[in-house]
Design goal:
heterodimer; A: 548 residues; alpha+beta; eleven-stranded mixed β-sheet; B: 303 residues; mainly alpha; MetI-like fold; 12 helices; elongated; disordered N terminus
Chain lengths: 548, 303
């Protein structure tokens, strides 16, 4: 600051700065030439998955991955190789019973009793077969032979109870339903019988997520060492940087895994992560931002895929004015421009939702579509009928984008649309834990929220979203009964009917309004063959191999 | 009581050479500022932004909050001169309105920091002793907190928003203004005119605030321009972190934060708010440099 610029120096410096900046602004041929057009992205093939509603297992909600895998020309499988896998956030621990954003890593280290494929069918995992009895209250598993933990300890019927006790602990993501397993009986070395407090219709869906750790280890060792039975075992873990997994040579299934090693590296900056993928410095990038997906999908060396993982919804606290009026809530349901959210935030990589769960899940029926939508005139009429012809002022609480992608964008779209019909919405952004606490305490007027586990209603109920003591403070005897009946439904028909009625009540009462499916995204190199992931969007690396 | 014969800026009494029509020191400084190149550039940049902030309602081609759903992420063009953001809002209009937030946060924080800082600085410098020690240690403690951390704490208490950002930056400004004033007062209070005023029976308050303080103003003015620049930058940082202006308010910082994810596909979204911020910061820095030059008697005499 001490030296004064002379005129020439200043002009030179400033013109270089301006020219440079303007050059950078204009030198972007990648500018969307026709931004009014939806990006030509490989649309998540939600419709490609057969809707199997009403069958024994709900269909998965669709993904473009299997299609991509199917079109790959068969090539000779090459054994070995190191898969470099880029993740956008740190792997916080390796204990499988507490879900973290990087839980998808667990699918390579741990296994569960059953496995759910992308079509929604349950296939054998650590259990060879299973059988329900006593009206769904008892389930008997026959376990696989020759299964060993990475520690060398054998996996038997004796392992199940102590392993499940970890999953049952307070703080476990499975705590809510695990405590309903009241009795474990070892019937033989490889046979175990579980008895439930009451029939639990989504039990197999839960068991698919319940990864089994080596119960001979303490919590601390499991958190840092990650000992399971999976196809890969932890070789080295440098927290915040790299998790190196190597092939489990004693894996019980023959001929897999094919890869010799997986190196999961943390890239906190997602642009840097994508640069690494595009320059060939990694083969898989997990969770690329939506705005980059159209560009990545045009890259001849890459495959992009999505799987619907989260649902965004708008909640209203029904004990607060004006949301105590059903008409007002229905009005809000008609004021949500879902398509614009899908186009703006998801860049077309997502689906508009007007039912609580999408096509293919239990309880879904086509007659539920169209009960809510986007029509501001209708919204205005409903709000007027609810006693607010001149609109009203309200606040929408949102958490950070990192917690639930899309919340801030949805809030801004809703705010702009509601303003047109006289409703002035103030956006209140709060920190993630504050947001959760205020939901639970009912200290909000309106909020935007998201939830995962979209495969069947029972899962969402158990994930504490649609529970009886819901954050929207909606209380009704019919609603409670439907929740209970759905959870305990013994046969598929009853379950289907019960949840269909539940969806009807939810849409009519409009206290929790579906907006859109926010998918999980992945981009991987074409040199990675036989790509596979679960219905939750978690990779299953045992069959994958590298063609290079 | 009279202070005739004592050269005090702001005091129009010139006991010596009454026949000469000399400019007051402030007018002279103003004239020197207009002859100073950096000063003119700084003033020009600041004026443009001030005009944008004050006249935003007439100058902005669009409503900065209006979302044009069909025109998302457009590059600069004839309709939207600087392009549009991810919700189809006109960037030029948002930048023009954003100037309001940046400048008002700058102004509020400087007024807050300046008022508290100078008063405590004069008190500490003039009365000294224990009072000085207490005041300065309090400010030392405050200086130990990084400003962003202070912003985060305040946002947790007051809730995020422009006022929170302004208060955080203002509090952060207090120690600097206070120390600067105190240093000036310590140097000035030993001078003869203070003894003279005291001899004439002036009260301590009068001596401190009427005689000494005006002589400490020049370095404070330089600091004022710098603090404004710092405040604008800090407001942008806090908004970038989501603690400043809340959506849909068009703050440059929050625009930059949003643009971060779109740099590969629509760089103008980040470049133009960044340029606006750069222009404000460069202007204020030039201005503070120029002010230092023209207000410093030793440098001024070289002109």
């Amino acid at each position: 600051m001490g030296k004064r610029l002379n005129r020439r120096e200043f002009l030179l410096a400033s013109s270089m700065f301006v020219v440079g900046a303007a050059g950078a602004a204009c030198a972007s041929p990648a500018a969307p030439a026709a931004p009014t057009k939806a990006p030509e992205a490989p649309k998540p093939a939600a419709t490609a998955a057969p809707a199997a509603a009403g069958t024994t297992a709900p269909a998965a909600v669709g993904t473009s991955a299997p299609a991509a895998a199917a079109t790959q020309a068969p090539a000779a499988v090459k054994k070995g190789g190191k898969l470099r896998y880029a993740v956008d956030a740190d792997v916080l621990h390796l204990a499988p019973w507490v879900a973290i954003p990087q839980s998808h890593i667990f699918y390579t280290i741990y296994e569960a009793l059953v496995k759910r494929d992308l079509k929604g069918n349950f296939t054998p995992g650590l259990a060879k077969s299973w059988q329900f009895s006593d009206g769904g209250k008892v389930i008997t598993f026959a376990l696989q032979e020759g299964v060993k933990f990475h520690s060398g300890k054998e996996f038997t019927a004796e392992t199940i109870e102590p392993a499940f006790k970890y999953l049952e602990k307070e703080g476990s993501s499975y705590h809510q339903w695990m405590k309903d397993i009241v009795k474990y009986e070892v019937l033989g070395k490889l046979q175990v019988r579980l008895t439930l407090k009451q029939p639990m219709s989504p039990l197999l869906t839960f068991l698919d997520m319940a990864h089994i750790p080596d119960p001979s280890l303490d919590v601390k060792s499991l958190q840092s060492k990650g000992i399971g039975t999976g196809p890969f075992k932890v070789a080295e873990w440098r927290q915040g940087d790299t998790l190196r997994l190597v092939r489990n040579e004693n894996y019980w299934r023959k001929d897999v895994p094919i890869l010799a090693e997986i190196e999961a590296k943390v890239w906190p900056d997602r642009s840097a992560m994508l640069a690494a993928l595009e320059s060939g410095n990694c083969e898989v990038a997990f969770n690329p931002p939506f705005q980059d997906m159209p560009r990545l999908s045009k890259n001849a060396n890459l495959v992009v895929a999505t799987v619907p993982a989260m649902c965004l919804d708008v909640k209203m606290n029904v004990t607060n004015k004006p949301y105590d009026s059903k008409k007002v809530r229905q009005g809000i349901a008609w004021a949500i421009d879902r398509q614009r959210f899908v186009d703006t935030y998801l860049f077309g990589f997502g689906d508009v939702w007007t039912t609580p769960l999408p096509k293919g899940t239990i309880g879904y029926a086509p007659d539920l579509e169209g009960r809510i939508g986007f029509d501001l005139n209708k919204a205005k009429q409903l709000i007027a009928a609810g006693g607010f012809p001149n609109g009203f002022d309200s606040t929408v609480m949102i958490g950070p984008d990192s917690r639930a992608p899309g919340m801030p964008t949805m809030a801004e779209i809703l705010q702009a649309d509601l303003k047109k019909i006289g409703v002035n919405l103030k956006i209140e952004a709060v920190e993630a834990t504050v947001c959760s606490n205020r939901w639970n305490e009912g200290k909000y007027e309106m909020s935007i929220h998201s939830y995962g586990r979209l495969k069947e209603p029972g899962e969402v109920v158990q994930a504490m979203v649609w529970r009886k003591e819901n954050p929207e403070q909606f209380r009704s005897a019919e609603y409670d009964k439907l929740i209970d009946d759905g959870m305990a439904a013994a046969d598929e028909k009853t379950k289907q009917d019960t949840y269909h009625r539940l969806f009807e009540v939810m849409l009519d009462e409009s206290f929790c309004i579906p907006v859109a499916a926010v998918p999980r995204t992945i981009a991987y190199s074409k040199s990675l063959k036989n790509f596979d992931w679960s219905a939750d969007g978690y990779i299953r690396a045992d069959g994958m191999w590298l063609d290079k | 009581m009279s202070t005739a014969g004592i050269q005090v800026p702001g005091d129009q009494t010139h006991g010596f050479l009454p026949e000469r029509k000399a400019d007051s020191p402030w007018v002279a400084a103003g004239k020197r500022l207009l002859r100073n190149r950096a000063g003119v550039i700084g003033l020009a940049g600041l004026s443009i932004l001030l005009i944008a902030a004050l006249g935003a309602d007439w100058l902005a081609p669009f409503d900065p909050l209006a979302q044009h759903a069909r025109d998302r992420l457009l590059p600069p063009g004839p309709v939207y001169w600087l392009g549009t953001d991810e919700l189809g809002r006109d960037l030029l209009s948002r930048i023009i309105y954003g100037a309001r937030i940046s400048l008002s946060v700058g102004l509020i924080s400087v007024v807050l920091g300046g008022a508290v800082g100078t008063v405590t600085g004069v008190v500490a410098g003039y009365w000294g002793k224990n009072l000085d020690a207490v005041i300065m240690r309090v400010w030392d403690t405050l200086l130990a907190f990084p400003t962003i951390l202070l912003g985060v704490v305040l946002a947790a208490i007051m809730g995020p928003g422009v006022v929170t950002a302004a208060v955080a930056v203002g509090i952060n400004n207090i120690p600097t203004f206070s120390r600067l004033t105190r240093a000036g007062v310590l140097a000035e209070k030993e001078k003869d005119y203070v003894t003279a005023a005291r001899t004439l029976g002036a009260s301590d308050w009068r001596i401190a605030f009427r005689h000494i303080f005006p002589n400490c103003i020049p370095p404070l003015l330089v600091q004022l321009a710098l603090a404004m620049a710092f405040a604008a930058l800090l407001e942008a940082s806090l908004s970038f972190l989501g603690l400043g202006a809340q959506p849909p308010e068009p703050s440059w910082g929050s625009m930059l934060s949003k643009a971060q994810g779109f740099l590969r596909i629509s760089p103008w979204f980040g470049i133009f708010p960044g340029l606006a911020l750069a222009i404000l910061l460069i202007s204020l820095n030039f201005l503070s440099d120029a002010l230092r030059d023209v207000l410093d008697p030793r440098r001024a005499s070289l002109d």
